[in-house]
Amino acid sequence: MNSQASPAADGGAPPKAIDRVREGLKRRYAAERRFRLLGLAAVVMGLLFVALLFADIVIKGHTAFLQTYIQLPIHFDAEVIDPTGERDPKTLKRANYRTLWRDALREAFPSVSGRQDLRQLYGILSIGVSEQLRDMVQSDPDLIGTTQPVWLLADDDVDMLIKGHIDRDLPEADRRVKDGAIAWIEALEAKGAVRKQFNRLFFTNGTSREPELAGIAGALAGSFYTLLLTLLFSFPLAAAAALYLEEFAPKNRWTDLIEVNINNLAAVPSIVFGLLGLAVFINFFGVPRSTPLVGALVLTLMTLPTIIIASRAALKSVPPSIREAALGVGASPLQTQFHHVLPLALPGMLTGTIIGMAQALGETAPLLMIGMIAFIVDVPSGATDAATVLPVQIFLWADSPERGFVERTSAAIMVLLAFLILMNLTAVMLRKRFERRW
Amino acid sequence: MQPSVLLLILLAAMAVAYHLGSKRAVAVAGGASRIKTLHSLPNYYGLYAALWTGVPALLLLGFWIGFQDAIILALVEAQLPAAMTEHLSEGRLSLLVSDIKSLASGRIVAGDVTPELQAAAAQYLRLQQIANMSLWALALALAVGGVAIARRRISPGLRARNRVETAILVIMIVCSSIAILTTLGIVLSVVFESVRFFQKVEWTEFFFGLQWSPQTALRADQVGSDGLFGAVPLFAGTLLVSLVAMLIAVPIGLMAAIYLAEYAHGKVRAWAKPVLEILAGIPTVVYGFFAALTVAPFIRGLGEGLGLDVSSESALAAGFVMGIMIIPFVSSLSDDVINAVPQAMRDGSYALGATQSETVKRVIFPAALPGIVGGVLLAVSRAIGETMIVVMAAGLSANLTWNPLDSVTTVTVQIVTLLTGDQEFDSAKTLAAFALGLTLFAITLVLNVIALGIVRKYREQYE
After folding, report:
1. Are residues A226 and A312 in the same domain?
2. Residue A233 CB partners (closer than 8 Å, separation 6+)
3. Domain of A165?
4. Phi and psi of A69, rounded to 5°?
5. Do residues A236 and A329 both lie within one domain?
6. With the C-alpha atoms ordered A210, A211, A212, A213, is the resulting torsion angle positive or negative?
7. Which of A340, B203, B329, B416 is the most exposed place for a label (fewest CB within 10 A)?
8. For residue B21, what are the CA distances in angstroms to B38, B154, B158, B181?
9. Do B440 and A31 touch (CB under 8 A)?
């Protein structure tokens, strides 16, 4: 206020408008710079969040792709595995493989005795080792009677220790791995009998209570069946609906209602679709719970609006001259659509469908409602088997207290994100490749 | 014999019928050289035959699969000895039925296996077999009958194309009505269960009660059979988390949109916008994991450093991460409306000597305000309905508090908690989830209708 009044107070020439503008200029430019910086900061912050999120996941998860193995000489004792010597597959399947690796551990550390200590010693290997040995013997019965050095799956606590997630300097009481176990591991390390190798089990196993045995194969299969069915249900439905609404529907109350409805459905919280699935599909129609089938039905209803909206946009972008030309040479309205408009709009419709499928792949909440949250170890082999999907698996693992599940959850997220990125890139490529400017 | 096998067989039958139909059409016309005498192209006669073959049988299959289980169960239930069923509540009865079902499919049964139960299971299996066989017989008969009818009707004068096109049009109309059916299904399913809930619990208690503990009985005279169903703490918790989210998302999203639309270079805009939009494509379960394992411990540590008592499941952590998720919604919607403001308005402002920021603040922002408000409302509805982030990062205890450092619970968290795990279908606990779902649906619906209305109206204004 003061500065504005000053020229007049000097008693000089009457104040000109330009002077007043000039005086404010500095302040206004500063405000301009501040505003601009604020905008830049907002963008940078947004980008920072993206970077932070990805970095966090990758840092937490990249170690899960390697798993700790311990090498021990295993004596495939014929007495234990196959006392009769008949090599009957049934005996080979039922044999007590646990004694094999427990004996090997005792031999490696002969000084260990006492129940407590022995239990701790056995604890450095995973309980899945028995299965590992059984598979080896079943695929090659000639191993029986020989002694072989075998890389055996370590327990998740040992794995965490090797990967440095458990601090060896902490007081023993605060540590999941006790001093004894650390001494054994260090002895094995000195012999070169501890190594990390590619974690194949993560991609071939179903889930498990033991982090070192847990894999995403079951969830991937569940996601695959669910998504396949969703695609089969939703694309034809959405294409037909979009075609009708965009090209044939008379403009009346009913079509207006449908249109408003579709826009609103696109914004309904996904969990409400889960309630619908539970009440209508499971309790009313008796669709089996926890199956990819009911999951796909729910996801179809959920993605339908997205695909319909995208498909209508694609149909709208086909110029009217195409239709007029087709009608002009005598095609019926449906022939015009199916022979001319639809092929031209198809890339756009497929792009929308892929985006809808990506949305369905990442969806969790409605699937919790319809029971796809169950603990299912087996890899599902069809659309009516109980199954879980990748995001739900992530949710379940994130809830598990074991330290080993943190890296597995992150790794599963990385796999999920990889699929999503792949799908979105395909959509972008499709759009670029087939996009036409009329 | 699986219904899916029948489905494949029917599809194959349609293909065969198509082939037969077009052959037949050429034959009735008197050979390939006299096709001209046909009203439509031969393949339309093929489609005509295929539709006659497939549509009735497929419709039958659909209805049969949809209702078979319910009808058979009703029959089995009616056959149960009256002594077994008369004293049972509805919930017990549904448990009994599920026992029968699992017994029939050879799974482990929760209750005792009585001879009556076994008889019922056997009957269930038998009825199922009968139903299956009659389905196959009927569906195949319909398919064969359809071929026969189509074959008889095919003649040069049959307006096959018009018939087929009408049928396709009807199919398309049905498909586009699914959107309506979905809404109807949502409304009916939540309303139906909510009505049952409000028969057990007073609606005043639900909407105005201050205590929420659906699991345990706290006082002797309470209205519900078990637990307290005052949902106010849930609404408050939802509001608090959403508020935190909007405090993060609106300033950042709006400023980013303004910067990208008004200041940024074309190149910066071309890659910053899609990168920001990545945030919208990340599954919410990933955000939940990020919130629970990274942000929450960080905020807790930060609070402890400042001498504050922060809950490990604070509303702040969940709201913060939800805010990150919502940034792209706000920014891309605002970006659209800012770009829709006519260039002439900017030029006019610059011509009067305004700086860019003054133009944005005094001309563009007021002009774009309705659209921005619409976008923000959509984002709010998104935040209220968001589930996974709060399930993973917010708590379960229904605290009525405005302190964002405390643990609160939300409507969606409670729906998930009430409906996962064991459920009896008519307990007040399970039904409460549907009442919450109804509330959620109603609130988001109102927000969406208002927001979409504003956005649409705004668009028309500048078009």
Report:
1. yes
2. A296, A297, A300
3. 64-205
4. -125, 150
5. yes
6. positive
7. B203
8. 13, 8, 12, 35
9. no
Which residue of chain B has the CA closest to A51?
A: B275
Closest partner residue to A241 (CB to CB) among B179, B263, B289 is B179
**How many of the other CB atoms lie within 10 Å of CB of B267?**
8
Asked if residue A212 is part of any domain, the answer here is no
CB contact under 8 A, A286 and B70: yes
State whether CATH 3.30.460.80 applies to domain B228-462: no
Residue A196: Cβ within 10 Å count: 15
Residues A234 and A284 placed together within one structural domain of the fold: yes
ipTM summary value: 0.89
pLDDT, mean of residues A181-195: 89
Tokens linked to B455: 């956005």
Per domain, the residue ranges of chain B are 3-158, 228-462
For chain A, helix (H) and strand (E) counts, in that order, are 20, 3
User: B35 falls in which pLDDT band (50, 70, 90)?
Assistant: confident
* Distance of alpha carbon A404 from alpha carbon A177, whole angstroms: 13
**pLDDT tens readout for residues B356-414:** 999 999 999 999 998 899 999 999 999 999 999 999 998 888 888 888 888 899 999 99
Token couple for A339: 């022979």
Cβ pair A57, A410 in contact under 8 A: yes
Q: How, if at all, do strands A147-153 and A194-198 pair?
A: unpaired
Residue of chain A whose alpha carbon sits nearest to that of B268:
A43
CA distance A427 to A347: 9
Where residue B444 falls among pLDDT bands split at 50, 70, 90?
very high
**Each residue of B323-352: pLDDT tens digit?**
999 999 999 889 988 988 899 999 999 999
Tally Cβ neighbours within 10 Å of residue B276.
25
**Residue A211, in any domain of the structure:** no
Most confident of the ranges A159-163, B80-84, B222-226: A159-163
A311 to chain B, any CB pair closer than 8 A? The answer is no
Which amino acid is residue B35, in one-letter code? I
